[in-house]
Amino acid sequence: MFDVGFFELLILGLVALLVVGPERLPKLAHTAGKWLGKGRSMISSVKADIDKEIKAEELKQVLEEQKKKMNPLEEVIEETSSTMQDLKNETESTVRDAQNTLGDSKPASTDTTNDSEQRSGG
User: Does residue 79 form part of some domain?
Assistant: First the structure.
């Protein structure tokens, strides 16, 4: 940020020594150091807050992109579920029709006696 070399600092120190005097120079340096430290800590705090906000925004964008990518998968799952439900309904109706057709051609009492005879082994 500031390009301050050794000679610039040396000149600044000499000017401060002449203006303030040797008795008050250490206290002035201490106070200046305190203010400089506070300023640096405030700047680093602001930078950290900005970084957190930027990362939070990036995370929100990533989550939104993932939601967009997940929508086609959800559509495929819903479509497959509806197709499976339709197939189930068709199968059930076909089985019912077959049972009705078989039930009309054979008496119900004959079916139950044959089943019970087969189970008992006779």
Answer: yes
d(CA 73, CA 79) in angstroms, rounded, equals: 10
Q: Is residue 92 part of a domain?
A: yes
pTM for this structure?
A: 0.44
Whose tokens are 């939070």? That residue is 56
- Residues whose CB is less than 8 angstroms from the CB of residue 17 and which lie 6 or more positions away in sequence, other chains included: 25
- Per-residue pLDDT of 17-48, as tens digits, reads 899 888 998 998 899 999 999 999 999 999 99
Cβ within 8 Å of residue 16, ≥6 positions away: 25, 28
